[in-house]
Amino acid sequence: MRKLFFIVFVILLVLALVVGSGCTSKKENSKVEEKTSTKKPATQSEETTEKPKNTVTVYFADKEAMYLWPFEYDDIDSKEERAKKVIEILFKGPAPSGYMMTVPENMSIPKVNVEDDVIVVDFLKSDIDYYPKGSTGENLFIYSIVNSLTMTTGIDKVKFTFGGESIPVPGSNYDFSKQEFEFNFDIVGKK
What we know:
Layout: H1 2-36, E1 40-41, H2 44-49, E2 55-62, E3 68-75, H3 79-92, E4 99-100, E5 111-115, E6 118-123, H4 135-153, E7 157-162
Parallel strand pairs: 6-7
Antiparallel strand pairs: 1-3, 2-3, 2-4, 5-6
């Protein structure tokens, strides 16, 4: 009986080592894919020290849905055009290899306007039905938009409206009728 137990234990141990080493190689492969991507990930120091040039920086969630990671896209001149390009990339995709979209599939592409010192992202009222449920999905959704827009345009605040109105969203952790959002450093991944 002890011999059988010992054999099962050894098999499980070997299996755990094989599976564990497979996980490591997948992570290494995803890092290689990330480095060879045509989109250049921005570094944390670039984010905090440089104000936007004409580059569009867009934040996508990692596959674990834990953090947002920045990626840079084409050069565009005006702040409003950069803001529109950010929204287009976030809503149409695709996300870079190894990362995931933060916008629900059925949401419409919102209108974007720069008003004074605030970027207004205006969704259709019907998009409330597709608004992410749960704090993780909601935070990744909101701050992929906010961080991308503020980093790209140099404008510090983003406001969300639905059908042109500042209204509350049922089930949300935020009060869209009052709140303006700023860049959230806590949700950005660090290398």
